[in-house]
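User: For my dataset I need records formatted as: sequence, then C-alpha cells, nothing else. Please produce one.
Assistant:
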Amino acid sequence: MHLYISVHAGDLKSGELQQTTDCLMVFVAVDEQGKLVSRSSP
C-alpha cells in the first residue's frame, strides 16, 4: 500500500494556501521471519 501525504498551510482571511511538505509512505506485509508476504487476489 502506498500513501501520499501533502501538507498545506494558509491564510484564513485570503484563503491562500502554500504546500509546506509532502511524504510518500510505503507499507509492506511481512511474515514472522521478516520475509515479504505475496499479494493475494481481491
